[in-house]
Amino acid sequence: MKVNNNNNNNNNNNAETESEIVAAQDQALQTEYYATKILNRETNSKCRLCQQFDETIDHIISACPILAKEQYIRRHDRVCAQLHFNICKETGVQLDKKH
């Protein structure tokens, strides 16, 4: 799925953020793996955080054991909170001010 460039899509991403999203979708972010395998640079392709696995987009967003300790949980919780908010809004459920 590509980012919709239509200005009427209520997307608040600026141009820089949108270009990063497209690069991630195309697996073209400047990871160590990308530098080694695609750009043919003589560098270590291992993850800069865990040093165990190749630093690919998939590894960064879902498989790095260092990020799994906190960052993936935080991301999960933010997604769940947004889903909860959207469901309440669509069904007319009133949320108190702390939500």
Q: What order do the SSEs take from the amino end to the carboxyl end, as H and E?
A: HHHHH
Give the strand content.
under 5%
Task: Report the oligomer.
Answer: single chain
Count the helices. How many? 5
Name the helicity range: 40-55%
Compute the number of structural domains. 1
Q: Distance N terminus to C terminus?
A: 30 Å
Nearest-integer average pLDDT: 81
Q: Roughly how many Å is the radius of gyration? A: 18 Å
Shape assignment: elongated
Structural class call reads mainly alpha
Say how many strands there are: 0
Low-confidence stretches at least 5 residues in length (pLDDT < 50)? Answer: 1-11
Describe the structure.
The chain has 99 residues and is mainly alpha-helical. The protein has one domain. It has five helices and no strands. It has helices at residues 15-25, 32-38, 57-62, 65-68, 71-91. The longest helix is centred in the last third of the chain and has 21 residues, at 71-91. The two termini are 30 Å apart.
How would you sum up this structure in a few lines?
This protein has 99 residues and is an all-alpha fold.
Observed structural traits:
99 residues, mainly alpha
Task: Give the arrangement of secondary structure elements.
Blueprint lengths: L14 H11 L6 H7 L18 H6 L2 H4 L2 H21 L8
